[in-house]
Amino acid sequence: MGLIVAIADTTDVPADKLKDALAVRSQLAPLSPQWIALAGFAAEYYQRPLGEVALPGVPKNLRVTTTVALDRAIKKLAKLADTHDPAPVGMPTLNPEQQAAADAIGGAQGFAPTLLYGVTGSGKTEVYLQACAQVLAREPAGQILILVPEINLTPQLEANIRTRFPGVMLATLHSSLSEGERMLHWLAAHQGQARIVLGTRLAILASLPHLKLIVIDEEHDPSYKQQEGLRYSARDLAVWRGWQLKIPVVLGSATPSLETWHHALAKRYRKLELRQRAVSQATLPAVKLINLEHDKPRDGLTQPLIDALKLRLERGEQSLLFLNRRGYAPVICCESCGWISDCQRCTAFMVLHKGEHKLRCHHCSLEMRIPRHCPTCGNIDLQPLGRGTQRVEEGLQAMFPAARILRIDADSTRRKGSAQEAFDTVHRGDVDILIGTQMVAKGHDFKKLTLVGILNPDTALFSHDYRASERLFAQLMQVAGRAGRTAQTDGGSASEVLVQTRYPEHPLYGAIVRHDYDRFATALLAERAQAGLPPYLYQAMLRAEAPELAKALEFLAAARDCVPHEGITINDPIPMSMTRVYNVDRAQLLVESPSRPALQAFLKEWMTRLREMKSRVKWSLEVDPVDI
Ligand code: ADP
Ligand code: ZN
Ligand code: ZN
Question: Which residue numbers delimit the Helicase ATP-binding domain (predicted)?
Answer without folding.
Answer: 105-274
